[in-house]
Amino acid sequence: MNKDQVKGTAKAVAGKAQEQAGKLVGSTKLEVKGRHQQADGHIQKTVGDAKEVLKDLRRN
Predict the structure, then answer these.
(1) How many C-beta atoms lie closer than 10 Å to residue 3's C-beta?
(2) Whole-prediction pTM value?
(3) For residues 11-45, b (16+ Cβ closer than 10 Å) or e, as one string?
(4) Which range marks the domain in which residue 33 is found?
(5) Number of domains present in the structure of the chain
């Protein structure tokens, strides 16, 4: 597991919390901001996953 995977997962979780907070207080802006943060986190995690695959391929 690399730092992109960890940071991406953390960012996605924080975005989900932000989205839920927006729903709770009725703030569409906060919901959208949370969804964007989730997407950023998923992208960063995917980059980390790709790095791990490449690292594994180089070992073999």
Answers:
(1) 10
(2) 0.90
(3) bbeebeebbeebeeeeeeebbebbeebbebbeebb
(4) 3-59
(5) 1
